Amino acid sequence: MSDLRKGEKMKEKSNLSETIFRSLLIKTQYAEDYALTLQEIYSDVESVPHFNDEEILLENWGIEFFYVDTKEQIEWTVILALMTFINQTGCEVSYVLTNQTLKKFAIMQENRCLGKKQLIVSDGIEININEVKDEL
Amino acid sequence: MNFNSYFLWPKKFVEDSINADGLVDKPFVEEYTEEILNKELYGLKEDDLRGLINQLSFTASFYARLRRMVIEHTAKITLVRMMDEADFEAEFEQELKQLLEEE
């Protein structure tokens, strides 16, 4: 299958990634537990010192990687899992999170689900989210 | 054990990949690595294999980081070129506007 064909196939499924707008978000215990689990996975991956590429195994989660690029992609996948969860279930979870990066992405998704306009500024290291008013 | 020759192992794969006409002809890397395993490594002892894994890890890391740095460096060069082009375009528009106003 060519790369173009693969792209077309992905496009057919892409509606699952579209934002589901809601008037309010709910708070539940299962959502908190799930978000905290993802936070632990994210923190475990993020905190691995990886100045040179080397074989890493996180036994608790069965996560294995060698390249720093792979580490970053796993971190992004965990963020994406959390954002998708918020979008699909309409649960608010940012208030239980303590990891600043994960918390910011959760807030970003929650705002998006509520239809709030936001300005996202990143210098490649830090991300800042500011809500913007309609007149802007 | 001396593994100096491993620097030459990817040569055929790289050349065949560069010379491939399109996606259909693109060689599969596994075919080349399997050939190396069968021809060069099959008879090696466990200690030698572990030594080779170490050296291959350093090499793989080096090339992966170098690839990433080259991509980032290229992106910077592309950005500078695009900004220069935008400046040139803006200056041209400004001069053109000035000329039209003078006429």
Write the layout of secondary structure elements.
The complex is a heterodimer of chains A (136) and B (103).
Chain A: H1 3-13, H2 29-46, E1 56-58, E2 63-65, H3 68-89, H4 100-113, E3 118-122, E4 127-131
Antiparallel strand pairs in A: 1-2, 3-4
Helix pairs in contact in A: 2-3, 3-4
Chain B: H1 11-19, H2 29-41, H3 46-102
Task: Describe what this molecule looks like in 3D.
The complex is a heterodimer of chains A (136) and B (103). With 136 residues, chain A is mainly alpha-helical. Chain A has one domain. Helices cover 48% and strands 12% of the residues of chain A. Chain A contains 4 helices and 4 strands. Chain A has helices at residues 3-13, 29-46, 68-89, 100-113; strands at residues 56-58, 63-65, 118-122, 127-131. In chain A, α2 (29-46) runs antiparallel to α3. The longest helix of chain A is centred in the middle third of the chain and has 22 residues, at 68-89. The model of chain A has no long low-confidence stretch (mean pLDDT 87). Chain B has 3 helices and no strands. Chain B has 2 domains: 8-43, no CATH class; 46-103. Chain B is mostly helical. Classes of the chains: A mainly alpha (136), B mainly alpha (103). The A-B interface holds A 2-3, 52-55, 66-69 and B 23, 57, 60-61, 64-65, 68.
How many DSSP helices of chain B?
A: 3
Number of beta strands of chain B: 0
Total domains of chain A: 1
Poorly predicted runs of 5 or more residues of chain B: none
Strand-residue proportion of chain B:
under 5%
Give the ordered list of helices and strands of chain B. Answer: HHH
Strand content of chain A: 5-15%
**Which two chains have the most extensive interface, and how many residues on each?**
A-B, 10 and 7 residues
The average pLDDT of chain B is: 91
Q: Output mean pLDDT of chain A.
A: 87
Query: Which H/E pattern describes the elements of chain A?
Result: HHEEHHEE
- The count of helical stretches of chain A stands at 4
Which percent bin holds the helix content of chain A?
A: 40-55%
Q: What's the end-to-end separation of chain A, in Å?
A: 46 Å
Low-confidence regions of chain A: none
Oligomer: heterodimer
Largest sheet of chain B: none
Distance between the termini of chain B: 81 Å
